[in-house]
């Protein structure tokens, strides 16, 4: 049971990185309104675009801790990969290099986190719990990347 609680903490930590990103449109108007030279897109505009992309898939992640508890790791991996791909696709659409860099980092960290779930066999909690420290490290990386994105966008 203790390991399941740790797994919930791991997943919630990673989810925090995404929740942080989903709230990144709250800058004051004067904070980031000037466009980056040669880019044509302000930080505000790029952050808003990233926020919309995350909001579109975020609801699908609402039951992810239940899926972890039930050992539905392939489903968790698929959900996290969808988010990873959404972040990557959105980064490809941005012209603001600052936001693009932070979003690519977040996408990469999310992909690494998803890979850990993809490597686990559905229902095999024993094997999966042996990776809990690796999962914790990956989830902290996701949360850190989300915080960096939030720092830029707010």
Overview of the molecule:
With 154 residues, the protein is mostly helical. It has one domain (2-21, 42-153): Four Helix Bundle (Hemerythrin (Met), subunit A) (Up-down Bundle), CATH 1.20.120. Helix content is 73%, strand content 0%. It has seven helices and no strands. Helix 1 (2-22) runs parallel beside helix 7 (132-153), helix 4 packs antiparallel against helix 5 and helix 5 (97-118) runs antiparallel to helix 7. The longest helix has 22 residues, at 97-118. Residues 25-39 have low confidence and may be disordered.
Output the helix-strand order.
HHHHHHH
Percent in helix: over 70%
Integer count of domains: 1
Name of the level-1 CATH class? Mainly Alpha
Low-confidence segments, given as residue ranges, are 25-39
CA gyration radius, whole angstroms: 16 Å
CATH architecture: Up-down Bundle
Major β-sheet profile: none
Question: What is the strand content?
Answer: under 5%
Q: For the terminal residues, how far apart are their CA atoms?
A: 38 Å
CATH topology name, in short, is Four Helix Bundle (Hemerythrin (Met), subunit A)
Number of E-type strands:
0
Distinct helical segment count: 7
Calculate the mean pLDDT score and round it: 78
Going by helix content, strand content and strand pairing, the class is mainly alpha
Shape, principal axes of CA atoms: elongated
């Amino acid at each position: 049971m203790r390991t399941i609680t740790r797994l919930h903490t791991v997943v919630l930590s990673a989810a925090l990185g995404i929740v942080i990103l989903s709230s990144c449109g709250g800058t004051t108007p004067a904070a980031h309104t000037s466009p980056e030279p040669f880019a044509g897109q302000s930080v505000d505009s790029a952050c808003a675009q990233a926020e919309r992309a995350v909001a579109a898939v975020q609801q699908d992640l609402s039951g992810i801790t239940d899926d972890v508890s039930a050992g539905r790791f392939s489903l968790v991996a698929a959900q996290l990969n969808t988010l990873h791909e959404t972040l990557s696709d959105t980064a490809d659409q941005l012209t603001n290099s600052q936001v693009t860099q932070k979003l690519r980092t977040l996408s990469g960290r999310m992909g690494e986190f998803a890979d850990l779930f993809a490597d686990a066999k559905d229902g095999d909690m024993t094997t999966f719990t042996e990776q809990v420290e690796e999962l914790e490290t990956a989830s902290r990386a996701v949360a850190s990347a989300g915080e960096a994105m939030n720092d830029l966008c707010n």
